[in-house]
User: Which sequence fits this backbone?
C-alpha cells in the first residue's frame, strides 16, 4: 500500500495545478455587507461557499481566519466547520488561521481538535504562535506529522508592533526569529532531509528581514500575508522574498472582491490573481 | 445611574467572598475517564457543570481551557458556550483561556466574539498571547474596557521552553517580559490610576523572575498556573511571588479531583483549596 502523501506533497501538487495563491476567507462585517450577505454565521458560511464555488474548488489552499467565525460564538464555529468540510470534500487543502499555542496536554488538545482521526474539524494545516517557545509546540508537530498535515509558525508578522519582540536577542546572540528559523529547519530536515517538511512559517513580506528569514527556512512553505488590500502586489512579494521562489504562498483575502462580489466577478479576480501568483514559482 | 463595576471590581468582590482560587476546567480524556464521563463534548460540559454545582457557584473565577473543548470540534465549542453561559448566569466570572492573538481587524474579530453585546460566547476575561506585539492587542483591550471585561496577557510561562524567548533582550535593553510589564502597567494606569486595571498577566510561579515580574505589574491581576497537579502548593506560590499578595489568582485544574471525582469530594477539595488560597490575600 502506498503511503499517504504528506501535506507538503499535496500542496506542491496543488500549486503546480493552480498557482501558489492562498485564498483567505475573512468574513468581516464590512466584507459581508459588500457581498449583500447577512452579518451572521450563515452569512460567513455563504461567503466561503461563494468563493469556493467561484473558484470551482481550483485553488492551492484555502485559509479561513478563525477569528471571523469565532465572532459569532459557537454558531460561527459550526459555520467554520461546515466550510472546512466542504473544502476538504473537494480536495481543497485547508490551512486554518487560528494562531493557537499552549503547552503540554493543552497543546495536545488543540492538536487533537484539528488533526485527529475523530475530530469533526480536521484541517490540513494550522497556524500557531510560539510565545511559549517552539519546543512547546511539539504536540502540534507530532499530531500534524501523524496526520500528514502541516503547522505554520508565525515567525515575522507584517505589523510594525511585532518587530521589537521578534528581533529581540536571545542569550546565544540570535534574534527570536533567527532562532525559530534554525529550530524549524532542524525539525524539517529530520523529518524530510531532501524536500519541504511539515513545519511552515508565516513571514510578512514587508518586514525588513523578510528575505533573510525566508532564506533561513529552506525546507518550509512560507505564508506571506498582506497581498492586495494591504498594498503589496505579487511582484512586491517576489522582490522582497526572492529566496522563497517556489515555496511562498501569497495570501489574499479582501482583494478577492477587488472587481466585485458576485460569483463571476470573484471567479475572474481569483483567476487573475492566480496568473500573477505564478510569477512566484 | 451607577456605572457598571469593572472586571477588576467584580473580581475583587468575588475574591473577598470566596478566596482568589481560580478553578480551571480542563476536560482531558484522562480527566473525563477518572470522572466516569464520556470523552465527548457532552462529557466535557457535564464535568464543568459538576464542578460549578459542587462549588455551589461560590468561586472567584472559572477558567475553562478552550483547547479541551476545541478538541471536539464545533460540538465542543458549543459545550464551552453553554458552560460559560451557565456560570455567568450565576454570576461566576469566567476567564476563557484561549491565548488568542492577532492584528488589526482580526484582533477586533476575536474581541467581538468574546466581549460584544451580541455574541453568544461573552466572557468576563480572556487570555491572549503577544507574539505580534502588545500594541497589536489594542482591539482586545478596547473591547474589554468597553464591556467592563479583562484581558490576561501571557508574560512568563511556567514551561522551561518559554524562557529563552520571554527573556530575550529588546534593543532598549529590556527583556521581552520586562517590556510587556512596563507597557501593561502604563495602560492600566491610564485606565485606572489608583487600583487594578483591565489588563492582567499570566506568570508561572516557578519562573526564576516570577517575583520581579509580578512586582513590575502593580496594577494587574496575575494568573498563576501550575498549582496542585504540577507540584507547586499555595504556599509555594506566595513564597515565589510575595509582591503579588492580594493580586495573584492561583489556578488549579486537575487538582480539584485530588480527593475523588464525585460531587461531594470535589466540594470538599475546592473548599480546602479556597482556605489555602486565602493565604495569598
Assistant:
Amino acid at each position: 500500500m502506498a503511503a499517504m502523501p504528506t501535506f507538503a506533497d499535496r500542496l506542491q501538487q496543488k500549486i503546480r495545478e493552480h498557482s501558489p495563491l492562498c485564498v483567505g476567507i475573512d468574513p468581516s462585517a464590512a466584507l459581508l455587507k459588500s457581498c449583500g450577505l447577512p452579518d451572521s454565521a450563515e452569512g460567513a458560511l455563504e461567503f466561503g461557499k461563494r468563493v469556493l464555488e467561484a473558484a470551482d474548488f481550483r485553488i492551492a489552499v484555502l485559509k479561513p481566519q478563525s477569528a471571523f467565525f469565532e465572532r459569532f460564538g459557537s454558531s460561527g464555529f459550526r459555520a467554520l466547520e461546515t466550510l472546512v468540510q466542504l473544502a476538504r470534500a473537494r480536495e481543497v487543502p485547508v490551512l486554518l488561521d487560528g494562531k493557537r499555542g499552549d503547552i503540554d496536554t493543552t497543546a495536545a488538545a488543540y492538536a487533537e481538535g484539528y488533526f485527529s482521526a475523530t475530530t469533526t474539524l480536521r484541517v490540513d494545516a494550522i497556524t500557531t504562535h510560539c510565545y511559549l517557545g517552539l519546543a512547546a509546540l511539539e504536540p502540534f508537530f507530532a499530531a500534524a506529522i501523524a496526520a500528514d498535515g502541516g503547522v505554520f509558525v508565525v515567525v515575522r508578522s507584517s505589523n510594525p508592533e511585532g518587530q521589537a519582540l521578534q528581533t529581540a536577542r536571545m542569550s546565544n546572540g540570535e534574534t527570536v526569529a533567527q532562532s525559530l528559523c534554525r529550530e524549524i529547519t532542524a525539525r524539517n530536515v529530520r523529518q524530510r532531509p531532501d524536500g519541504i517538511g511539515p513545519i511552515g512559517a508565516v513571514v510578512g513580506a514587508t518586514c525588513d528581514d523578510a528575505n533573510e528569514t525566508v532564506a533561513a527556512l529552506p525546507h518550509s512553505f512560507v505564508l506571506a500575508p498582506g497581498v492586495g488590500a494591504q498594498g503589496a502586489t505579487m511582484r512586491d512579494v517576489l522582490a522582497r522574498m526572492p529566496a522563497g521562489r517556489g515555496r511562498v504562498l501569497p495570501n489574499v483575502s479582501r482583494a478577492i472582491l477587488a472587481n466585485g462580489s458576485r460569483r463571476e466577478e470573484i471567479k475572474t479576480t481569483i483567476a487573475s490573481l492566480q496568473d500573477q501568483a505564478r510569477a512566484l514559482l
Summary: Residues 7-280 of chain B form a domain with the TIM Barrel fold (CATH 3.20.20.70). The radius of gyration of chain B is 18 Å. The longest helix of chain B spans residues 73-89.
